[in-house]
Amino acid sequence: MPRVTRRPSNSVNDRPGRLRLLLRRGWRLLRPAGWTGVAILLLLGGAAALHMLLPSGAPGGSLATLRERVGNATAALGLRVDTIVIEGRANTPEPLLRAALGISKGDPILGFSLDAARRNVEKLSWVDQATIERRLPDTVVVQLVERRPFAIWQNQGRFVLIDRDGQTVTNEDVAQFRQLPLVVGTGAPGAATPLIDALMTHPALMARTVAAVRVGERRWNLQLRGGMSVLLPEGHEAEAIDRLMALQQDHALLDRPLEVVDLRLPDRLVLRPRAEPAADPATKKPT
User: Fold this and answer.
1) Cis geometry, peptide bond prior to residue 233 (ω within 30 degrees of 0)
2) For the chain, what is the domain count?
3) What range does the domain containing 141 cover?
4) pTM: predicted TM-score of the whole model, two decimal places
5) CA atoms lying within 13 Å on the CB side of residue 237
6) From CA 117, how far away is CA 193, in angstroms rounded?
């Protein structure tokens, strides 16, 4: 008795069956549009057939040429970009976004690669993720998820915005975000999030903090308003900040004339008083 074998569903021989299914579904969608819908269906079906029959190793130019031909053919039937909808944009400059998108009003709506457009948009510094889709016959929708600036990083005289992951967002218009925490020094972006999260649990301390300075890429010093420096232990910043605020509540430590509060040792507190300004000899009273 002859053996009966089934071809794998993803084999090359099954592609005509997949194409017939695609055409059948397309006919149900486009039938109300009359002969224009039929023409569009034939063009799309032909493009899909050529795409499936192209070898997987076909050079990118072959697919780009096919896309251009299909785009030009369908544009003659009215499938052109008329509206570009942008959602989720807050800080990304719109001219840069449109330039990266590379799509203009009047372009064939099937004549560009969605994937290539998405990759170009995601190269913009403000953009974390992008989704781009066509809504036939004439609309392109761009949905953005932007990076959220978390802090300002100062290093070697330059100021840039960073996100929670320590990634650079932008170095432009940083002054607009001056309300964000300032971190200073080499290695600060990658270590800033736990420290800032700990400071945010104590708004009174956050309000006093001018900058957090990374020391030796190991630990932090807090520079407070009035010139006080708070030295924090490596890896135990949250505990030290809790301890500092307990001392403030019990002894008003931060209101005293101190230059340094050293919390690096868990079992002791080292304080350095602020130096008194030297008296001006010209103002010294005669004895």
Assistant:
1) no
2) 3
3) 83-146
4) 0.70
5) 23
6) 32
